[in-house]
Amino acid sequence: MEVKATQTVEDHTIATLYEASLKGCVSTLHTLIQRNPLILNRVSLSPFTETPLHIASLLGHLEFCEALVKRKPSLVSEADSEGRFPLHLASAEGHTEVVKSLLLTNPDLCYAVDKDDMLPLHFAAMRGRVGTIQELIKTRPDSIHRITHNGSVLHFCVRFNHLEALRFFVQSATMNQDFLLAKDKEGNTLLHLAVKLKQIKTIKYLLTLPEMRTAARALNEAGLTNFEVLEESDPRDFITLKIQNMLTEAGVQIINAKQQGSSSSSSASSASPSIIPTQPAQESKRMKLWETLWLKYLQYRPNWIEEKRGSLMVVATVIASMTFQSAINPPGGVWQEDTHSGGLSCSSYGTCKAGTAVLAYDLAHDGFLRFATFNSVSFFSSLYVVMILLSGLRVDNKPMMWILTIVLFLALSSIGNTYISAQRLVTPHHLAHKVGTVNASFSTVWKIIIAIVVLFHFLHLLILCVKKF
Predict the structure, then answer these.
(1) Where is the composition biased (Low complexity) (predicted)?
(2) How far is CA 444 from CA 344, 410, 412, 450, 455, in A?
């Protein structure tokens, strides 16, 4: 019974300690320590996942934190169930004075990571705590270069839209170009992420940095440029158009900077100032017109198939239905019964079987075989499209989009050839030449359209390869 009573008293004392940490009552802490000098050592035996220092650091009770650390310094190195140290919590809440106190006890806590591999600096960046960021960097400057699977501290600033914290990091003495252009797990640079989140002020600031303007056309892991990331974002509004113009102007500024550099160097070498020729300006204007045409009209939209998934499903289903009907009801019909003679001689085959195509027994040409081949290609191509769309696979990536595009063009081309082959089979000989002439003109236009589309896709693939490698 005495053990049970002692246990109850101890539990009550620990609970009182945690209540004091919630209120930041230093006098209660001293009273508890006087009554039980080992109370802070018994914290690790309690069922609570956090220590009193975690709670006091989270709430910013500076005097209480200092009293705890003075009595038991090892509390600063205790982690909670999430692997977070008191410094993580104080940094997230922006309690700068508490952060200073904890760092005086153990400066290496700047390198402490939680279960998600995040430093206290990442929490401060995530909440935009500039004062806390300054103290953490001052204590351990190299902690800024730690990159998690979610990116660097700069990515956290952009992801949670803290422009002032981003400015502070960029202007830090420890910042270098490689770190500024670092990518997250999806291969996104800071500009990719800002464009994706449509943060106009952040984009405007990033484009003032020469390093970021130079890498403005970089690709992420999905092979998307900043323009293509913007194209994927919804909805398409005024902000999207404004960002497009900002990115386009950034590309023009890079060209102008080179021209100004070359012109300034030439003027420096000459004794008197010279007038800048108009040809570079004309070239810049032509480049701007070309980029505008490419970005607004010719650029490959990476999400059009995903947007038109329902329409593609209907088109593919209609093509499959049409070609299926053509297979069971071919041009010229089928034999209604077994026969050895008829409009076409069946003697060469023995018997013309009931239900088989009449024109399939024509020995004069292989028109029916051509019709059946094109019909089958169109039928199975449409089934492939339906299968891919129903499979649940993501179709907004470029490889899948190119596969769907090729298969769709194959289905459409084959159904066109199926039509021409069927028409030849049922057209009388005295009209075959005239009908063939009409079909040839339309077929030529169709082939030209296919060639243009294929060339466009090939050039786009070539441009991506050049940018990537």
Answers:
(1) 262-277
(2) 33, 16, 15, 10, 16
User: Are 287 and 309 part of one and the same domain?
Assistant: no
* Residue finishing a domain among 182, 215, 243: 182
List of residues 6+ apart from 399 with CB closer than 8 A: none
Question: 75 near 29, Cβ under 8 Å?
Answer: no
Does the residue 192 lie in any domain?
no
Asked whether residue 349 falls in the same domain as residue 417, the answer is: yes
Report the length, in residues, of the chain.
469
Kindly report the number of other CB atoms within 10 A of residue 240's CB atom. Answer: 16
What number of CA atoms fall less than 13 Å from residue 168's CA on the CB side?
21
- Domain for residue 345, yes or no? yes
Same domain, 293 and 226: yes
Distance CA 395, CA 404 (A): 8
Pick from 19, 143, 160: nearest CA to 88:
143
Nearest to 198 by CA among 170, 171, 164, 226: 226
Residues 231 and 158 in one domain: no
How far is Cα 369 from Cα 362, in angstroms, rounded to an integer? 10
Q: 427-452: b or e for each residue (b if 16 or more CB lie within 10 Å)?
A: beeeeeeeeeeebeeeeeeeeeeeee
CA distance 457 to 296: 17
Helices (H) and strands (E) counted in the chain, each on its own, are 22, 0
Report d(CA 104, CA 98) in Å as an integer.
10
Q: Which of 236, 219, 234, 405 is nearest to 305 (CA)?
A: 405
Q: What is the mean pLDDT of each run of 10 residues along the chain (469 residues)?
A: 49 88 94 91 86 95 95 93 95 95 94 92 94 93 85 91 91 74 84 87 87 75 76 68 77 38 39 35 51 47 56 82 84 76 60 76 70 87 84 68 80 85 79 77 82 76 63
Residue type present at position 277: P
Q: Which pair of tokens denotes residue 440?
A: 């040839």
Write the CATH number for 61.
1.25.40.20
Predicted confidence at residue 260, as pLDDT, reads 37
Q: Are residues 54 and 35 in the same domain?
A: yes
d(CA 127, CA 233): 25
Which stretch of DSSP H or E encloses residue 116? none
Q: How many domains does the chain have?
A: 3
The answer to the question of residue 11 being in a domain is yes
381: in domain: yes
Q: Which residue has the tokens 């002032």?
A: 164
Token pair in block for residue 19 = 């209540």
What is the residue range of 404's domain?
A: 304-426
Q: Dihedrals φ, ψ of 148, to 5°?
A: -95, 180
Tell me the residue type at 280: P
Coil, strand, or helix at residue 151? strand
